[in-house]
Amino acid sequence: MSTTTRIITGALASTLLIAGTAQADREDWPQSFTVGTASQGGTYFVYGSGWANLVADQLDISGGGEVTGGPTQNLALVHGGDVAFGLTTMGPAADAVDGKSPLAPGVAMDNVCALFPMYETPFSITTLSDSGITSISEIPDGARIGFGPAASTSDTYFPAILEELGVDFERRNGGWSDLGGQLQDGLLDVVAFAAGIPIPAVSQLEVQTDVNIIEFTEEEQQKVMDKFPVSDFSIPASTYTTLDHDARAVSMWNFAIAGCDLPEDFVYEVTKVTMENNDKMMDVHRSAATTIPENIKYNTVLPFHPGAARWYEENGYEIDPALIKQ
Predict the structure, then answer these.
(1) Domains along the sequence of the chain with CATH
(2) Distance CA 230, CA 220 (A)
(3) How far is CA 75 from its chain centroid?
(4) What are phi and psi of 245, to 5 degrees?
(5) Cβ atoms of residues 87 and 285 within 8 Å
(6) Global model pTM greater than 0.90
């Protein structure tokens, strides 16, 4: 056998060994995965479906997003193993861990682990300009307000927020696209959105008609922060063509979640793809500007999946050991 032949044969054997090892490492991986998102027309659906496609392409595995009722339902779906991954907010997550989910009262959802920070969800209010409503205090008694899908973060918290601010209303539910259409058709007076910005349904409305994006006063903002698990937020004027100044609001952090029983190596690779490709995540949705490891500190509720925690720790990001699933 010639020297060249021996080199080629050795290189081929090495390649086959590496490929075989990589294949062996993936033996316990699922053949496909699903990400629980929310209704079409909302940021969760765009973000979650795009993220699923990125992971599927990078890891050469079949995956995609699924329309759901949003954060509260996603916690239940992930806990039950109906979907591998989901998107949620910290308020519903805290309720789920404490056994206070409206979908499963008394059930502490302990098979839900944190993956990575997504973005803050602003609570914002949109009306048609011809409604004459320019502030929260001007929302008339009995106003028909759309709060998003039933049991979503918006539907869970926004009605209580508006009640705290003295608003009397009729409560309506539906997907964001449907509610935007109902607002335009005069079937609703207001839509109270809790979704990442820019909200596709609002951007579409701006193209078709004149809208008002209602901001909180300083007093309203402080009153809501004192009562609910939200923080101060400012919607940048550049978010919508309607805005000519930053709009005062409140917000809640979103995190991607995973079933705690998913293989550690699989979740490690999913986390690696996500955290090391922020430019590609930004292509999915520009709210992913905050989908960075520095923001893992905003999760103080859910245990991190060991696979995710391993990537963070290898890259210099500390996590309290008590907040890692054992």
Answers:
(1) 31-120+253-323 (3.40.190.10), 122-252 (3.40.190.10)
(2) 13
(3) 12
(4) -155, 160
(5) no
(6) no
